[in-house]
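Example A, followed by Example B.
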Amino acid sequence: MGRNGELRKSIQKSVPVRIVDRGTKVIVLGDAADTARVGELLDELLIAVRKGHTPTPEDIAYALNEPHPSGSKDLGAVWGDVPDVLRPDISIKPRTRGQRKLLDAIRTHELVIVTGPAGTGKTFLAMAAALSALLNKQVNRLVLTRPAVEAGENLGYLPGDVTEKVNPYLRPLYDALYDIVDTGQARRLFDKNQIEVAPLAFMRGRTLSKCFAILDEAQNTTPEQMKMFLTRLGEGSRTIITGDMTQVDLPQGITSGIMEARRILRHTRGVSIVDLTKVDIVRHPLVQNIVAAYEADSEEDAPSKPLPSHRRDYEQSISDRPS
């Protein structure tokens, strides 16, 4: 059946239509609304293919499940165009409107704060943009950092020296790096001191000039840590701060640093705030269902189990922002 047959099955499974190939023509059979919807999607897929994109069943699922007022319109450009902030040779493109919005924000702003659930590509796209800037010689080095929050384990009881103790917390940054460039190229960048990976506590007292900095898992920073990091930025630097407000490991009663930064910096020139949602999840399709199930469970338990303050504030801030 091939890739086209797989895509056709994906569409027919989601929408009650029948798609028939007639040589160079494709006929969609069904009621008017469904055939118009699928016809628009097929047009956008064709645009993406002509731009060099190979459609996937995940693209189909995203297009048909995304609650966007314009339907599939312009998705061909989202899938097919390579944003200027990414090097074409690293073979990475946005897969959702939210991801495209994030990459556009990285291109036009010096500081981007992006939040979203697991699987939306926050860290991966941030790393791709940072590596592109480094390889294009727009910056001299990358600084990758995360807070070493103790989620059930005490750092003092982990084996090894300081580096060995914090490496497990930084592993996701290494994973994203090695997914984008091969091990040999990554090792050369480390050997030249062009990439530094360190826990957030090691940033105090430094000035980060002519670099691209990524602060990952920033939902687990305190307001003091966030302010400390933001005031490290030097001349010619760019920064991306990522966080997932559904997975905060801070002690009860402590405000998340990324939440406070969103509030304080929301009208600051040069700063962009991007909110990704479960619609933008591009990991295993089951992840989107898992996130949705947890959200539904939280809503059902809302009267007896109120949301933590950081979640209430975060969801209110999203609802207050213009669409």
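Example B, a separate protein, is given below in the same form.
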Amino acid sequence: MSNSFFEIGMKIEMEVERDQQKIYLPTKVEDLDGDTIFLGMPFHKGKIFYLEDSESIKIYFGKNDGFYFAQAKVVSKKYAPIPLVGVVLLGRPQKNQRRDYFRVQVIRRIKIRLLNANNWESAFLADLSASGALIYFGRDLQKDELLEIRLPLDFKELVVKARVARVEKDETRQVQQYNIGVQFMDIDEKVRDDIIKFLLTEQRKLRQKGYL
């Protein structure tokens, strides 16, 4: 199976299933060798996420202004000099119509508030997809709390409703120590398309700077 879709340094997202739940794990392509794609071994909740030998996964990625997914299988694992997992594709990548999984690192100041609260609070956007975001925030929040987010894109500001999906404290940061993973709710397709347009622009900028 040709790996012409992939480049070293390309960011992707793995989908794996555990206990009948889908888990999405960001990583990137570290090397290509024949049909084998070597990916950085992903982390989950601050620890290496171990994949089983011959485990089937899905991988999602953006390329040439499109979103793709492919079925793949784990064929090898290496731990030195860096932890890697080798996968081979089980079919040609297909266009992903949902596009929910494409994620780009975007660092910028945002405002958030609990739903129906009066005061907006400062936070940092760390990464963004069409279905959710990772936010750095200065205090703890509860899972399933509902938020409003003022999301400044280059061409407009969006206000989106979101649900807190996970909260983790990062002791290595002096400020905004809480990593808040949120899932967008009741999002209009026009708003989703605006986010995707912004993500594609940001991806092109990162590629031009050599970060992708």
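On Example B: The mean pLDDT is 86.
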